[in-house]
């Protein structure tokens, strides 16, 4: 397939009577970084969670590298996949949570190796070598044997990034990865993410770090009330927004 | 340690050479002395009053029939706990599953077996043989592959173990379910996002974290069951409590024989309590920044501090105490 790496088409999602996503379209090419910004409650987290099928969408579809997420296509019908197959699909999609969600009873190294071993069944020596390499990449070689609670927030989030990368995913989704961090720890996590972006990792990042968006993003998408209101290269969206709502939001966060 | 310190001097310039003197607590000493005297009186009464019959206690403590009874009590406890928690875990997972039928059946089981007194359940299983003469294995509602007389299958020992386990399972189910509910839902979400297979999520991610709250409650249950096995005496099974009754009915030394039983129950629960402490430590890994020190380690540290203090005093007064 030579289409986009991530293709979100006409996605609707509601919780009861609350329409959270109201027709979202988003395309992310391989190797590109898309930053999603928008006010609280606009549906950014829900969009990310729909992309890896942590939330089931009501209408529309998501494909990753041409493969339907959560469904199998046959003719013009989509058949819901079994949980096993959805879990297998998720190994192609890295996810980094705002609150890390590291496994507290496992060491840093075990956090990183768990999914490649149990979800992908890759050989242990290969996975261990990969873990060593990834922990070095995020600057935590010395912490392999530590438990998450013994680390600072910034260090924990870097472990979470290494854990997501260990699956060798096609795309990594970040949901406000620095929002739970003390201000002085934000930089170290953003540095790791910038290095990833330079290395050609396909990323979708929800963040309030406008500086990061400006520096790293290929595309910035502004989301409001369940829709992507406008998207484009950072200078266009951040400096010359076309929509009043974008302008109003930016004037508050800048 | 949260001991408070009283600084002798508070001038800033000599801060490096300040001596820390621990606060005096005369109240503690007085309370300690009172309790010590009471303890001594109690010990005296235990040892010197001939009614306790210590020589008889000594004679029967390791009597073969008593030892056999202790062993049998341990077997019943182990069977009850292991089978109870296995079944209880299955029930808890059923209850937590999103399949309404499974969840309701599990709920119904817990409801039933918690509602009926254990002693009644035991008698029921014991007398089950009278109810169903044959137990058949085969296709449900269809032909049987083979049958056994229920008397052969459910002897008194099996009935006792079965009764204890089935009863225990109801309580274990709630304990295990509570443990699973205590795990942060974000943990499951992270595991799901990583694509970790469902069974593995339960065993590797949820269960170890659930154990944090399961172990203390399970410790309670095990210790409760050690003593709870004594109700099977109504089935005339030679567990500890029944056995000492048999003996004192023969020799008339009621107090002494009850003491023998009490001592053994104490020994068993002590061993279990110590075991529980270490199991808790095992599952506490990573959940606190540092593991609490073991009692042995703590004693050693206190001794080391004492020794250091003595050495310092004999050396003519050192500076700081860390
Ligand atoms: N499980 C749920 N049940 C009901 N409502 C939900 C649920 N999850 C999210 N919502 C609602 O959906 C809306 C969008 O939530 P979402 O978390 O996607 O917003 P967001 O853009 O990520 O906001 P923030 O910047 O605060 O993280 C909110 O109004 C929220 O209250
Ligand atoms: Mg959010």
Q: Please tally the β strands of chain B and state the result.
A: 4
Largest sheet descriptor of chain A:
6 strands, mixed
Order of helices and strands of chain B: EEHHHHHHEEHHHHHHH
Strand content of chain B: 5-15%
Low-confidence stretches of chain B: 1-12, 317-322
| Greatest interface | A-B, 32 and 24 residues
Assembly state (oligomeric): heterodimer
The average pLDDT score of chain B comes to 84
Mean of all residue-level pLDDT scores of chain A: 94
Radius of gyration of chain B: 28 Å
Model regions low in confidence, pLDDT < 50 over at least 5 residues of chain A: none
Classify the helix fraction of chain A into a percent range. 25-40%
Tell me the strand percentage band of chain A: 25-35%
Number of helices of chain B: 13
For the secondary structure, the number of strands of chain A is: 12
Domain ABC transmembrane type-1 (chain B): 70-272
Family (chain B): Belongs to the binding-protein-dependent transport system permease family.
GO molecular function (chain B): transmembrane transporter activity
Pfam families (chain B): BPD_transp_1 (PF00528)
């Amino acid at each position: 397939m030579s289409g986009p790496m991530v293709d979100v088409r006409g996605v609707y999602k509601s919780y009861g009577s609350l329409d959270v996503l109201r027709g979202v379209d988003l395309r992310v090419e391989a190797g590109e970084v898309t930053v999603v910004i928008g006010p609280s409650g606009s549906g950014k987290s829900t969009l990310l969670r729909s992309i890896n099928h942590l939330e089931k969408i009501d209408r529309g579809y998501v494909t990753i590298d041409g493969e339907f997420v959560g469904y199998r296509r046959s003719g013009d019908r989509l058949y819901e996949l079994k949980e096993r197959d959805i879990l297998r699909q998720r190994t192609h999609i890295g996810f980094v949570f705002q609150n890390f969600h590291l496994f507290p009873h496992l060491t840093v190294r075990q956090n990183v190796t768990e999914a490649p071993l149990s979800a992908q069944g890759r050989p242990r020596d290969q996975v261990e070598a990969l873990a060593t390499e990834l922990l070095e990449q995020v600057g935590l070689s010395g912490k392999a044997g530590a438990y998450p609670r013994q680390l600072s927030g910034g260090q924990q989030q870097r472990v979470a990034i290494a854990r997501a990368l260990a699956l060798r995913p096609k795309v990594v989704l970040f949901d406000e990865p620095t929002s739970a961090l003390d201000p002085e720890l934000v930089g170290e996590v953003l540095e790791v993410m910038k290095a990833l972006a330079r290395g050609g990792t396909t990323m979708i990042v929800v963040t309030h770090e406008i500086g990061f968006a400006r520096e790293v993003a290929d595309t910035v998408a502004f989301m409001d009330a369940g829709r992507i209101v406008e998207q484009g290269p950072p200078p266009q969206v951040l400096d010359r927004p076309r929509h009043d709502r974008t302008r109003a939001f930016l004037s508050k966060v800048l | 340690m949260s001991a408070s310190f009283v600084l002798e001097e508070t001038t800033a310039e000599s801060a490096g050479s300040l001596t820390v003197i621990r606060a005096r607590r005369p109240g503690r000493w007085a309370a300690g002395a009172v309790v010590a005297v009471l303890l001594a009186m109690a010990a005296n009464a235990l040892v010197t009053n001939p009614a306790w019959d210590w020589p008889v206690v000594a004679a029967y403590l390791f009597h073969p029939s008593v030892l056999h009874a202790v062993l049998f009590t341990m077997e019943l406890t182990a069977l009850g706990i292991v089978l109870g928690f296995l079944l209880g875990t299955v029930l808890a997972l059923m209850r937590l599953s999103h399949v309404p039928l499974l969840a309701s059946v599990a709920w119904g089981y817990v409801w039933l077996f918690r509602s009926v007194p254990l002693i009644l359940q035991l008698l029921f299983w014991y007398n089950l043989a009278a109810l169903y003469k044959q137990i058949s294995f085969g296709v449900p509602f269809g032909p049987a592959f083979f049958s056994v007389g229920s008397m052969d299958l459910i002897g008194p020992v099996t009935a006792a173990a079965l009764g204890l386990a089935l009863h225990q399972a109801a309580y274990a189910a709630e304990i295990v379910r509570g443990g699973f509910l205590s795990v942060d839902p974000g943990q499951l979400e992270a595991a799901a996002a990583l694509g970790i297979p469902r069974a593995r999520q339960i065993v590797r991610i949820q269960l170890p974290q659930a154990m944090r709250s399961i172990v203390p409650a399970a410790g309670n249950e095990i210790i409760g069951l050690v003593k709870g096995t004594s109700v099977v005496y109504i089935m005339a099974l030679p567990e500890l409590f029944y056995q000492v009754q048999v003996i004192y009915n023969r020799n008339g030394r009621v107090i002494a024989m009850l003491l023998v039983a009490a001592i053994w129950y104490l020994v068993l629960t002590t061993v279990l309590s110590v075991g529980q402490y270490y199991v808790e430590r095992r599952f506490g890994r990573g959940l606190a920044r540092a593991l609490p020190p073991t009692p042995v380690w703590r004693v050693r540290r206190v001794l080391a501090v004492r020794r250091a203090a003595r050495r310092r005093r004999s050396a003519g007064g050192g500076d700081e105490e860390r």
